[in-house]
Here is the input.
Amino acid sequence: MNRTIDIRGYNPADHEAVTGLWKTVFPDDPPWNEPATMLAAKLDFQPEGVLIGVANGAVIAAVLAGYDGHRGWINALAVDPNHRGHGYGAAMIEAASARLKSMGAVKVNLQIRGGNNSLKAYYESLGFEVENRISMGMLLN
Here is the structure.
């Protein structure tokens, strides 16, 4: 059952709600993903990639998306656990994808942690496909 969600750009008044949502949804994130710092960096770099989902006046979802000049990236999606199963995540991905397309993206990528089969199945249900790639990273200390 889909319920109504209002999707809009970030407003500074959203700060506490968004960082609180991030801490709830991603409690085991590493220190370099500290919500307030990460959000501030994203807003400095590409604020149009921060979308907020509001239902009944409360922030219940957020997505961080980015455009690298060719591809779009869904960096992170958070939906309040008490509001899952109503199509809000799909609506956020759809809005972020439309925003990325308007910026010039021809494709949208995302990454999930290995072994997270339920999230993999969720994104596949939205049209994403597993690609033959290896994701690599390096911390810059």
